[in-house]
Amino acid sequence: VTRPRRRGQESAGLAAARALDAEDPLRSLRARFALPADVIYLDGESLGAMPAATPGRVSAVTTHEWGEDLIRSWNTHDWIAAPSRLGAKIARLIGARPDEVVVADSTSVNLYKLIRAVMAVRGRKGVVVAEAGDFPTDAYVAAGALSQAAGWRLDLRPRAEIAEAIRPGVDLLVLSHVHYKTAARHDLVAVTRKAHEAGAIALWDLSHSAGAIALDLDGANADLAVGCGYKYLNGGPGAPAFLFVAERWREKLSSPINGWMGHAAPFAFAQDYAPADGAMRFLCGTPPILSMAALEVGVDQFDGVEVNAAEQKSQRLADYLIFDVEARCAGLGLQLITPRRPAERGCHVSFTHPDAWPVMQALIERGVIGDMRAPDVLRFGLPALYVSFEDLWRAVGVLGDVLRTGAWNAPRFHARRRVT
Ligand SMILES: *Cc1c(COP(=O)(O)O)cnc(C)c1O
Predict the structure, then answer these.
(1) What residues are paired with 241 via a beta bridge?
(2) DSSP-based helix, strand, coil % in the chain, nearest 5
(3) For 322-361, what is each residue's pLDDT tens digit?
(4) Crossing angle of helices 307-328/2-22, nearest 10°?
(5) What is this structure's pTM?
(6) How far is the CA of 228 from the centre of ligand 1 (A)?
(7) Nearest CA to 177 among 235, 138, 124?
(8) Tell me, what DSSP letter sits at residue 59?
(9) Is there a catalytic annotation at residue 231?
(10) 106 close to ligand 1 (CB < 6 Angstrom)
(11) Residue 138 near ligand 1, beta carbon < 6 Å
């Protein structure tokens, strides 16, 4: 007897979600992406979806530019300018000047280069503050870089102690703007100001912010930043990363890896190294053109889109997801770990569940793709460009069903894979 009533409620929920989609000014952007029809993709904060234009563009670069034009393409197709051209496009998304951003290497490598560059200007000893429990590569890279100079020390602090750790004597602060698990967001403006008051330089990891949150790095007087190309920027697996060096630092910092692409005149083949201006000196070797081509298509999906509008949509999606999970999955063991206030979070939402791994595997088998972060986090990314309210309504229905029926407990969902 309860079934018809429940079905009625469910179709009302679907209709409400569709009404929200109908009012969404960004709804047409989803057509720019090639998502499988039977998948609800809530993992764009881990690997962004593929733009529909990417295969054609990569194919044109291989077939035509590489295959036919060969080495001439460095000039005729301006391959050589890809790091700065893409940097300029990303600069618009993060509130930087076009020449303050370049695309190169991975986020991890860019972190290393910038940390070593700061160490070189600060001298023989110093202190770097980073957040314990932040994305591991940041602390790994910082510790590794510091271990190469005897006088340098890493002060790894839990999130609650970061503010008090920023005090005179600290040289560098390395911090993710948005936390990879909880989505908790640091106040970039306030923390940068506090770092400066203490005489420290701030290096922001924008991996979960670029393309997701409206940033004004120059307005915040930011010093340095790095970020990822394959998350909200949709550049494809292992896409090159970016780095930002504020103009006032451009002549003061230099890369620890003096590769020829960071030289002021690479094709002069001079004997001595002379760094290029600004962020360009942080280039190292030859840019990976095929990967750059895919990243450029990813970044171009933001053409005509203000990040501010994308952020607002993602925040509405997050509010909706939190509300819907708490309404339809109440009592099923999920615990929200993402801040409830939009200004305090990024664009993903996470819940803990004691059996997060098999639960996520069961969701994925039913076409709802999010990811699991050890030991117990279910994480759902909400990129504004292609996630809809209807997606979330359907995903929460599947989540509730998987939990309520215990379907997640089938043995096949318990086998661990290398990548989670
Ligand atoms: C995803 C991510 C990275 C990725 O680093 P790679 O060098 O591209 O593997 C780095 N930092 C944070 C905070 C991330 O979320």
Answers:
(1) 104
(2) 45, 15, 40
(3) 999 999 999 999 999 999 999 999 999 999 999 999 999 9
(4) 170
(5) 0.97
(6) 6
(7) 138
(8) H
(9) yes
(10) yes
(11) yes
